[in-house]
Specification:
The protein is of the alpha/beta class. Helices cover about 45% and strands about 10% of the residues. Keywords: Membrane, Transmembrane, Transmembrane helix.
Amino acid sequence: MASRKTTDDRRARIEAMRRAEQSRERRSRIITIAVSGLVVAGLVGFGVYVLNKESEQQEQRVALAKKPIKAEKSWDAKKLGRNHVKEAVSYPQTPPVGGDHNQAWLNCDRNVYKEAVPNENAVHSLEHGAVWVTYNDKASKDDVKKLEEKVKETSYSFISPVQDQADPLMLTAWGKQVSVDGADDKRVLQFFEKYVQGDQTPEPGAACTGGVTAK
């Protein structure tokens, strides 16, 4: 009898342990499912937030590009020459906003030039839809550095010094030009949004690499 009772007690303990283990497994599954659900919900929510944020930013960029730029100067793009020439060109603006130019464009894919670049090559880059940022020795080093960083993150843009320009900081696209008060001037972002491969571009989609690089 004692042996049978011992066997029954052992079976009871084993069964109790089995039920406890099953209970722990069920709790673990429930917790795993709950946590997974929260993670998925979080990821979905984050994804929706990111998409909404990107959509909002895109709408802001579109709206910004539609607004007129204060104190901007414009030239009739159709009246700006587009012939390829080998000789130097005497441009009426400094920096030039368009006109006849060298057959080789200046590399304008986030290029930062520390020395003056040939106008004839730079104008060809404008024809391809690039924005040209220029400065002279009256511009602050901090503004120049910020604008260089802006160029480094923006395809179809380049920056170089132009000592004889009228103002310390200027932005130029084909047939468009504006002087800005500093790198944080809101017109900088507006000009980039409006004219990097903008509607003024005579040759949209043309390359900004594979050209020449000024020293």
